[in-house]
Amino acid sequence: MQIGKVTGTVTATAKAERLTGQKLLIVDVVNADGKVLIASTVAPDTVGAGVGDTVLLTHGSAARMAQGLSSAPVDLAIIAVVDRIST
Amino acid sequence: MQIGKVTGTVTATAKAERLTGQKLLIVDVVNADGKVLIASTVAPDTVGAGVGDTVLLTHGSAARMAQGLSSAPVDLAIIAVVDRIST
Amino acid sequence: MQIGKVTGTVTATAKAERLTGQKLLIVDVVNADGKVLIASTVAPDTVGAGVGDTVLLTHGSAARMAQGLSSAPVDLAIIAVVDRIST
Amino acid sequence: MQIGKVTGTVTATAKAERLTGQKLLIVDVVNADGKVLIASTVAPDTVGAGVGDTVLLTHGSAARMAQGLSSAPVDLAIIAVVDRIST
Amino acid sequence: MQIGKVTGTVTATAKAERLTGQKLLIVDVVNADGKVLIASTVAPDTVGAGVGDTVLLTHGSAARMAQGLSSAPVDLAIIAVVDRIST
Fold first, then answer.
1. I need a labelling partner for D62 at 20 to 30 A (CA). Which of A44, A65, B48, D46 fits?
2. Distance separating alpha carbons of residues C26 and E30, to the nearest angstrom
């Protein structure tokens, strides 16, 4: 997984049917110091995350193991809100 | 997922049989500000996108969860036309 | 998918049994202008491509959806010869 | 797989149910000389690794082949503690 | 697939049970001219490769299609020893 920082939201009317009802967030992939590694990925939220939160992102087929996403065409999901990073 | 900007089309006569009938678009992967992160990916459209549109791209096995692609040899698909990005 | 330019061939005697009979081509991943993004990937051809051709490459498990590759240990395949890119 | 150096830990209260009980470690992907290639990935430990250890990381669906992770939404796992690298 | 150059070996005592008996090699991913693209990946050998050999690497779920790896937690495998690259 990678650490992410939620920076915004995406809205789309024309979309895959199985995205309906998913909250899609813009998330920068960051390192432990908050430096952006990959800007502006888009992930459905499965744990109540919001803009400003530090989160855990899972990529690829793992995203469809997250709550409510088993048949969604998604390659990324927010699976935790990070409380603390200790390095 | 990542944000994409549709910039063109690809045509191919000699191709995998299961690509027949798919509209293949050239899409630059971009960040929320429109800066190109990965140039010239190629994705089938599943939501009525066209050149100039901002779209959502899904990678890997997730592409085959999109409408009409379950048995196609594709690793990328357009799954939404983006209306608004709020950051 | 990504656009590729076929630049050569690979031969191997000691290899996985299920690679036997596959023509393995060296392909540079390029953008729509022909600039190399990833040099020297190796992909089996499934559509009659040859050195000098512009092709479409599919990555990951999608490669095994291509003709004749369902049980081969391959993570990349040539699935089309590109006739024209319009941007 | 890639070589990793464990640098810290992550704690999260709001998280996917199937992450409960997993020890999540911060791991830098490094080369054989210890140079950081990808900073701050997050991986569950399956072999008793701790901060300061050099480990092997497996990515993607392979992570769910590791002990205890078959239904977890994870795309990375620590699958060995490295004793020695000989180059 | 990508071309690799075997540069060393890894030994690990604490490891996933299904890695037992696998020879784990350090492999640099290189281009057709031998330039290093990704340093120090770690792959099980399935074709009798050794240090100094030029090999073919397969990534992701394809690695588990290689001989003897179907249930191993591996995301990379050596599937051929390259005899000749013609470009």
1. A44
2. 12
A5 close to B (CB below 8 A): no
**pLDDT tens-digit readout, D14-58:** 999 999 999 999 999 999 999 999 999 999 999 999 999 999 999
* Chain segment C54-63, per-residue pLDDT in tens: 999 999 999 9
D36 in A contact zone (CB under 8 Å): no
At residue E80's C-alpha, the angle toward residues D55 and E87, to 5°, is 110
Record: contact D39-A31, CB cut-off 8 A: yes
Question: What ipTM is given for this predicted complex?
Answer: 0.96
Query: Tens digit of pLDDT for each residue in B14-54?
Result: 999 999 999 999 999 999 999 999 999 999 999 999 999 99
The torsion angle over the Cα atoms of residues E1, E3, E5 and E11, rounded to 10 degrees, is 0
Q: Across the interface, which of A32, A58, A85 has its CB nearest the CB of D75?
A: A58
Domains and CATH numbers, chain A: 2-81 (2.40.50.220)
Total length of chain B: 87
